[in-house]
Amino acid sequence: MTSVARLLLVTALLLATGATRAVAQQPPETGAKPQPPPDQAAAAPAMDLLDLWKKIRHKEPTEAERAAAEENRSRMFAFAPVIGYKPSSGAMIGVAGNAAYFWGDPQTTHISSMVASLTFSSKKQTSLTQKFSAFARDDRWHLAGDNRFLWTSQDTYGLGTGTAPEDGMNLKYDHFRVYETAFRRVHRRLFAGVGFHFNTHTDVRPGDDEVSWEDSPYVVYSEQHGLPLDSQTSAGTSANLLIDSRDSAINPSRGWLGRASYRAFFDGFLGGDSSWQELDVEARAYLKLTPDARHKLAFWLFADLVVGGAAPYLDLPATGMDTYGRSGRGYAEGRFRGERLVYGEVEYRTTLMRNGLLGMVVFLNTTTVSNAQEGEQLFDRFASGAGFGLRALLNKRSNTNLCFDVGWGRQGSRGIYLAVQEAF
Question: Would you say the C-alpha torsion 114, 118, 121, 124 has a positive or negative sign?
Answer without folding.
Answer: positive
